[in-house]
Design goal:
It holds the Pfam family Transpeptidase. By secondary structure, the protein is α+β, with helices and mostly antiparallel strands. The chain folds into 2 domains: about 60-225, Penicillin-binding protein 2a (Domain 2) (Alpha-Beta Complex), CATH 3.90.1310; about 235-590, DD-peptidase/beta-lactamase superfamily (Beta-lactamase, 3-Layer(aba) Sandwich), CATH 3.40.710. Helix 9 (about 235-250) packs antiparallel against helix 18 (about 570-590), helix 10 (about 310-320) packs parallel to helix 12 (about 365-375) and helix 12 crosses helix 13. About 40% of the residues are buried.
Amino acid sequence: MPRISYQHLTTATPVVSTHHRIKILKKVVLVALAIIAVRLFFIQIIEHNDWLAKADEQHTLLETIVAKRGEIYMMDKGEPVAVALNQTTYQIIIDPAVTDKDEIKHALEAHAKEYIVVDLEEVYRTEGLRYSIVAKNVPRDVANKIAEKNISAVWFQKNNQRVYPEGEMASGLLGFVNADGLGQYGVEGSLNDLLSGKDGLLKTTADVNKVALSIGNDNIKIPAEDGKNIVLSVDRGLQKGVEELAVESINSTAATNAAAIVMNPNTGEILAMANLPNYNPGDYGAVKDASAYMNYTTEVPYEPASVCKNFAFSAAINEGVMTPDTTYFNEGYEIIDGWKIQNAEQRSSLYGTINMRTALYWSLNTGSIYALKLLGGNPGAITAQGREKLYDYYYNKFRLGQATGIELIEAEGYIPDPNEGWGRDSVYANMTFGQNLGITMLQTATAFSAVVNGGTYHTPTIVKGVLEDGELKAESFIEKINDKILSDDTSAMMREMLINNRNYKVRGGIDKAGYAIGGKSGTAQVIKDGAYDDTMSETVGTYIGFVGPEGELPNYVIMVKMWGEGQYLDGGIASNLFDSLSNYVINYLKIKPKA
């Protein structure tokens, strides 16, 4: 049998010669060299300046030179004393691309946990991030402990943290500085630009870890401009005493809040400005309600009630249509625009013909309404002329319902238009005794100062000057107004009536002999659910007055306000605090009585 043989079949593959392969390789190499040559040409010739800038950027450290925040001072026995200071702290900055995450995390959590301001895990998850502030307001000793770890690409930027050596004192006036270094509320907020100064910029050569290799004046592009050291007109001792007496008054009454102003009516200088209760501006985040930050003397318009009778009476006297001895017939109420407006004081001895001195003494609403009628030239009715004249005095002369211009954050408030809207007669009748309008304590105290100081309106101020090289230099940052708005005679008549209001037979002889002390109380209804609460279950008590030697122009004006949610607080309660403050002012400021 013949043998069968099997042949294994394979697929044929073209054979490429070695010579051909070399030729292809040469072409590839030539193309690559050409591409490299072209790229080098672009880098070295065309893009030379761009790459030079990038190289320089890699070795240049740009660092902000933080301006030193100006400090705040009060006066104390004629000398400035600091009430808001700077303490050196540090920001800790890392380069996440270089800094070891575990090292820096362990160091921060061990020594500076309460100062960490970022989520470190998130920082390291952020692609391409080369700069991150990881901690702020770190004290020097804590920063030193972290620096001793010698962790790569960690820098310490010096900053100034705000400290308040007086604790809670004057917190509503001073405000605070937040974690970003910005002033908030009070003087810190209103004068933030002056206190902050302007940061500078440092440019210097650095190594690969961004560590500065050389620092000198030539490297500084923009030098820092430190903030101004502001000296307030506030007297530290007076401020402290006013606050202590206000706290005592709160603790002995149903009030939960009190505010007070002491000012020089002849210059407009504020000597004390209190808002109670206080808070600690060094730990501002601990407050439960942001309303604690408010300065109630400048930021909150309210209805001060019968203290506004001073302004209605002054307007009528100044226009020559009324004197303290002018009489009218008091029935105990008025019907205006269908509304019955009553006197709070309804004793029978006041019914019938009485004079305006008596009307102010007993705070009769019918008396201030009569002054409005006289302004309009018709003793029997309120007229458009009367409304317009009252508006002119309230808004244009006394500047009620508009910012005073003081160096603080202010609310404007409002004075109703004399001719637009329904029920203008009743609105303006209520305005004569301080309802149906909105004005701040500071506006009220400044206008009252003009009533009793001889008739001149002075823009209030709380800044005495700046401290430079340890020396107090007078400087003003506002436009001052000094307008004569009332006659000397008008002011003298008003002082006489206000002193009469504190007649010793009624006040119990509390005022010291040889001093002229006059004032006026106010008890204001509050608006609930869009209407006045006629039950008087909650009221705001106000008292405003002046203090000085007998027979002379007043040295000081004092205004107090007391309130509490759901509490009845009348002008009498506020007057008790005024009594304490006036005696304290006399003793503290050593006001000498008439010889």
